[in-house]
Structure formats: C-alpha cells, structure tokens
Request: fold
Amino acid sequence: MKNLRPQIQLSNGQPGFRATLAAQIRVLDTNQGIVEYVASDETIDSYKEIVRAAGWDFSMMQKNAPFVDTHSYDSIKSLLGEVLDWKIDPRRNALVETVKWAKDVPSNDLAKFGWDMIQAGFGPKAVSVGFMPDNFVTKWDNDPAPWREQLNELGIHEEDGVRVIYTQQRQIELSACILGANPNALQLAAKAYKAGAITDAQIEFLSTEISRRETAVSPAIPSDGDTALRKARQIAVAQKVRHIAAQF
Reply:
C-alpha cells in the first residue's frame, strides 16, 4: 500500500488503521453508563485521509464489539466496556456509536476513572475507530479516475491536502483516548483533580497505569530493575499531575 501510514495491531491481532476524532459526546443514561459518540465522519483527518461513511462494514463488530483504551490490547484491564450499536447518520455522513462503560465492575478501575472524568466534564475528549481497510483510492494511483470521482463526491480538491480515501473498511473496535495516545491526558486529569472530581487514589491509579504501559514497551531489563523503573515513573507522573493542578 504505497505511501500509507504505518499500521497498528488491532484487537484481532491483524494489522490495520485507526481514525481518531474529537468526539461529540451525548450521555444517554447516567445510571447505566451509556454514551453516544460521533465516532467518525468524512472530514480530512490528521493523516490527511478520509474514511467514507457509506463504506463501513460491521461484520466483525457483530461477533465482538470491544470498547478499549487507546487501542491497547496488552491486558484485559484495558477493556472499558462494549459498543452496543452503530449507525450511519446520513445527514452528517458520520458514524455514530453507542457505548456502555463498565463503570460498575468493581475491578475495572480504568473504566471507573474514565466515567468519572466524563461526569465531571473533563473527557475523554476523543474516540478512535480501529479498522481494516478493504478498498481505498490514493492520489498516486495509476488510474486517476476513481480518485477524482471520490474527490468530486466529497466536494473537495487535491489541493486540500487529502492523500488517501478509504471507500470500504471493516471496524474492529472503538477506543477511548484516556491514556497514552492522548497528549492532553495529564492536563485533563490535573484539571479534574483540582476541581475535586477525582481523588488522590485515582491519581495514583492513573500514574500506575501509565508507568506500567511505558515500562512494558521498554527494552528487556532485569525484573528488579523493571520494578524500580516502574515505581520511579509512577511517582513522577503522580507528582506531575499534582504540580499541573497547582498551576490552575
């Protein structure tokens, strides 16, 4: 696939892509933890790509519809809930999905943390769709006719900067961006902490999760060194969140 961005590993173990959107959030049921997200639309994303709304295939989601944190599949702890349903809104050419957060599962601290942030108005502010492309057109295709046809349908020009248009794609999962890929995660956590929306215990949990993920992708080091590194990183993250909070 010429000049396409690097693929990521999806929840089914196969390579694919993700489309991230600053989500439009609507809480449908506070007691049940049910939220509606506008998960994708036909605007040009940060990769200079467009995902066509009519091209979504949900056959994989009908078998298993995970709602996870930041495309992280290294642990069941990253499972935040499930996607209940999905639809295409023809008025906005947008993918709209309804999610149930696992906020009432006693051992799911990350889901409870994310839900508390939503309730307090601090996030998560983005969702990201993990998908496998089946058909697409690019500005480099030997036959430019399908590419120009897609540009025409979208009412845009090549000068607008788009490089790739996905016309058929299978959704694998939906992610909330709480940790890792969200560069504003610590800032949002600090604001929530300052407002009293999250506790010291939740800050400790956040710092533990971030340190666990960072050390998990570090080069192999002795187990005692790994433990020390993780603990040091955990303390540093917690201190940073509290320091940011003090600035507000």
Notes: The longest helix spans residues 223-247.
